[in-house]
């Protein structure tokens, strides 16, 4: 939202005629360039050309500040300031520039100091007494939302420059898509606070923020020389992709709406079936009031009458196919990277008519619920509209818990404040009192939110599978006994794990210890990098520890053909071998005849719906008698440490949690 500062209007400076302004701006530009040039000559780091003012080009006057103003007001004000309410309408350009409060005008072009819009939001906590600048603003009411210094400056500059709209020249009849055409989730928050809260801590909101995703995507971009294009970002940021942001754009350079990932409109601004499409969902552009929101109800009560949007029923939104547009990932060469939807299609749940939404949007994450079991409440709570005008309905939950969780600091996700985009907020002592207070408040809120997300995540995972263990209670020393473990899936909707299965690790750890606590048998334990002792472990490859022969791990593996004609399990599906297994580049061969490129496949290890799998662990008891302890666990980890090394993000390794889903403990009494 915050573009580089261009030029600052000094208070009380008279409005310059446009022609004069242009020439003086050109002068600034030349001086600026000259300065940069000379700095460059003297070896100093070139500073960005700061003084370039925006071009207000007649006869098509426009102001590139307008989009920022519009989005700022949309996120912070229009929930209360809508048409058809007591409050001044701040939803459109016309309403804002023509708006009045009594005799005062909302905006007096050229004179921010006389414009209510500016006077209501202006504040400076350090303002000198008598300066006329208040220490707290009139608006907006929520302290966390007060306009940042940069935002106040933008409003001031925009009004000083004549409060123009951003318009294309008249002869230009192609309207490019801009950020303005996709309402932010923040805008929905005003009337849908519960859906917003749930969504904001969901992995849908995190999809593009994810540092693991960013590192993974950029690694693949580098290895495919960019030919992968927007393949990865099309699902993780459907709006960013629609806006034309390319695949290798860093997150810090993406638009704010792009960083909202699978934002509200990515699901609610779609009127048509798109079928299985590996992303690229067709989101309808348009301002909040201009286009419908599509949802589950055929009798929505919103609409312009109460200054909200029109609603329409989209029965398709309640089907699994709707989720399947993104939850089946097939790459351009036909490799089925993720199969949640395909698995569901063949599942017992599908036969019983149990959809993704029933398990993932009900009150208990992972357990199917019928429509009528859902809590009753209001789908919208609209400021200024009496509650009774909105009917009670059966509501859904938008948390969409999954095994993923945020790897970002608690100051960055789920929420971040606007002023934090404008300065380095990590130096506490350099922060003002307001900044310290709001940062503390933000972290409190974020931690609370993340804790709920954690609880939901564990709830979901605990509904995946159970373990059954048979282990002898007595034995003789020196004997070899079997500890038998069965994992029984409780999940009728898809395999366990599903989705990002090449990385998800769901495994059994079986550890037997003698009475002194020494380990005498271990499977499913971790090496010093925190990895399982499988073919990807550095310690196993370096012969420092033995490969885990009995490992029961439901992770899927990428298998590639090597130049010798043998197959090998690989961590990344792209490498720099002579024999290219570069499955992410555009297809160059005859994938069709194989259904996959001949050089690559995925070995599926996941546990099919409601099925079970067993493993027998032969434990050789040593000569000593005594009580031996057996500990069996079903563990889950969303990403393996080796992957983090391979995508250049080893600093994230310490945040990877092993979640224990089920645990069994027993003893073996060993007689001499
Ligand atoms: C939570 C609801 C809410 C939000 C959000 C909000 N306002 Fe207001 N606003 C009010 C209320 C209530 C009043 C009338 C009481 C008052 O003046 O304090 C008001 C009054 C105003 C007025 C005086 C004209 C009028 O409509 O009465 C202006 C101008 C204004 N707000 C601007 C803004 C701006 C700009 C933002 C966003 C940066 C904003 N408001 C955000 C509730 C809100
Ligand atoms: C991943 C897709 C997805 C995202 C993202 C999403 N929704 Fe929904 N939403 C749904 C589905 C699906 C339903 C209907 C489910 C059903 O009834 O079975 C729904 C239902 C709703 C409803 C109807 C009332 C209720 O709670 O059931 C509202 C209102 C709503 N969503 C608002 C939002 C808002 C606001 C956001 C963003 C903060 C959002 N949604 C984000 C998929 C999504
Ligand atoms: C000014 C208030 C307001 C804002 C802002 C708002 N909504 Fe709504 N929304 C409503 C009302 C009122 C309803 C009707 C609730 C009902 O019928 O029970 C509604 C209903 C919905 C529904 C259900 C539609 C149906 O018929 O099934 C969806 C989905 C929805 N909104 C999504 C959104 C999204 C996404 C945003 C942000 C882009 C948003 N809304 C912003 C007030 C608002
Ligand atoms: C526009 C694409 C898109 C649509 C539509 C979509 N999802 Fe997602 N979903 C994603 C992406 C991308 C992620 C991964 C986010 C992450 O973990 O970083 C995700 C994550 C999830 C997760 C959490 C997974 C985890 O590992 O934590 C669940 C559960 C989920 N989606 C269920 C659904 C359901 C149910 C629907 C249908 C109502 C749906 N999604 C619709 C793209 C989508
Ligand atoms: C019968 C209930 C049920 C149904 C139906 C169901 N799920 Fe799940 N889902 C679960 C449970 C329980 C888990 C946790 C276990 C796991 O991670 O596999 C889960 C996990 C997930 C995950 C995270 C998987 C991972 O391990 O990374 C995604 C993504 C997901 N579901 C998407 C979907 C989609 C999309 C559909 C519909 C096509 C669907 N689910 C249908 C219960 C269900
Ligand atoms: C068709 C949609 C789609 C495409 C294309 C896609 N993803 Fe995903 N991605 C998903 C979904 C859905 C999930 C959640 C699955 C789950 O939780 O099991 C996900 C999860 C992930 C995760 C784990 C979540 C996290 O944030 O740590 C990573 C990493 C990831 N994807 C990377 C990629 C990369 C790299 C690419 C490009 C090669 C890619 N994705 C392409 C839909 C997609």
TrEMBL record:
This is Cytochrome c-552/4 domain-containing protein. The lineage of its organism: Bacteria, Pseudomonadati, Planctomycetota, Planctomycetia, Pirellulales. Residues 187-268 form the Cytochrome c-552/4 domain. The keyword Signal applies. It comes from the Bacteria. Keywords: Signal. Pfam families: Cytochrome_C554. It comes from Blastopirellula marina. The keyword NADP does not apply.
């Amino acid at each position: 939202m915050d573009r580089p500062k261009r030029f600052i209007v000094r208070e009380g400076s008279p409005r310059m005629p446009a022609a004069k302004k242009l020439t003086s701006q050109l002068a600034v530009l030349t001086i600026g360039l000259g300065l940069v040039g000379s700095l460059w000559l003297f070896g100093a780091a070139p500073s960005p050309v700061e003084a370039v003012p925006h071009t207000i080009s007649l006869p098509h006057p426009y102001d590139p500040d307008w989009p920022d103003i519009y989005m700022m007001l949309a996120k912070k004000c229009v929930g209360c300031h809508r048409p058809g309410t007591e409050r001044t309408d701040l939803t459109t350009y016309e309403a804002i520039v023509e708006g009045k409060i009594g005799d005062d005008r909302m905006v007096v072009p050229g004179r921010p100091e006389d414009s209510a819009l500016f006077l209501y939001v202006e504040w400076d906590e350090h303002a000198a007494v008598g300066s006329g600048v208040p220490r707290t603003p009139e608006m907006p009411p929520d302290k966390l939302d007060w306009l940042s210094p940069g935002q106040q400056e933008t409003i001031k500059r925009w009004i000083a420059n004549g409060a123009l709209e951003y318009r294309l020249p008249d002869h230009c009849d192609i309207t490019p898509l801009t950020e303005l055409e996709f309402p932010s989730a923040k805008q929905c928050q005003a009337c849908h606070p519960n859906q917003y809260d749930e969504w904001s801590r969901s992995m849908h909101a995190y999809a593009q923020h994810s540092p693991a995703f960013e590192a993974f995507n950029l690694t693949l971009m580098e290895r495919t020389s960019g030919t992968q294009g927007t393949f990865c970002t099309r699902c993780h940021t459907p709006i960013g992709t629609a806006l034309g942001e390319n695949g290798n754009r860093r997150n810090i350079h993406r638009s704010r709406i792009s960083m909202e990932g699978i934002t509200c409109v990515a699901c609610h601004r779609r009127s048509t079936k798109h079928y299985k499409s590996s992303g690229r969902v067709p989101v309808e552009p348009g301002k909040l009031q201009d286009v419908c929101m599509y949802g589950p109800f055929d009798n929505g009560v919103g609409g312009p009458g109460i200054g909200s949007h029109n609603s329409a029923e989209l029965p398709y939104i309640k089907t699994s196919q709707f989720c399947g547009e993104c939850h089946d990932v097939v790459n351009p060469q036909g490799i089925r990277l993720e199969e949640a939807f395909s698995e569901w299609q063949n599942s017992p749940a599908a036969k019983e008519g149990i959809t993704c939404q029933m398990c993932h949007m009900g009150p208990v994450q992972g357990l199917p619920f019928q429509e009528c079991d859902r809590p009753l409440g209001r789908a919208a709570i609209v400021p200024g509209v009496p509650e009774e005008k909105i009917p009670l309905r059966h509501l859904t939950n938008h948390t969409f818990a999954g095994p993923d969780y945020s790897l970002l600091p608690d100051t960055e996700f789920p929420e971040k404040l606007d002023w934090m985009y404008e300065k380095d907020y990590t130096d506490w002592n350099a922060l003002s009192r307001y900044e310290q207070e709001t940062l503390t408040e933000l972290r409190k809120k974020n931690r609370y939110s993340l804790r709920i997300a954690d609880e939901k995540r564990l709830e979901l995972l605990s509904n995946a599978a159970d373990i059954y263990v048979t282990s002898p209670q007595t034995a003789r020393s020196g004997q070899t006994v079997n500890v038998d473990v069965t994992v029984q899936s409780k999940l009728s909707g898809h395999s366990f794990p599903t989705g990002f299965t090449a990385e998800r690790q769901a495994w059994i750890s079986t550890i037997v210890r003698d009475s002194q606590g020494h380990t005498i048998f271990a499977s499913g334990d971790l090496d010093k990098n925190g990895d399982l002792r499988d073919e990807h472990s550095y310690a196993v490859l370096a012969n420092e520890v033995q490969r885990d022969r009995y490992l029961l791990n439901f992770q899927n593996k990428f298998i590639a053909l090597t130049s010798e004609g043998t197959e090998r399990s690989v961590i990344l599906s792209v490498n720099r071998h002579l024999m290219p297994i570069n499955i992410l580049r555009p297809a160059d061969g005859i994938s069709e005849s194989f259904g996959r490129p001949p050089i690559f496949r995925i070995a599926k290890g996941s546990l099919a719906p409601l099925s079970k799998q067993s493993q027998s662990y032969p434990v050789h008891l040593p000569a000593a008698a005594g009580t031996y302890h057996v500990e069996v666990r079903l563990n889950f980890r969303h990403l393996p440490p080796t992957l983090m090394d391979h995508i250049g993000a080893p600093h994230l390794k310490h945040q990877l949690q092993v979640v224990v889903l089920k645990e069994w403990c027993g003893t073996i009494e060993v007689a001499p």
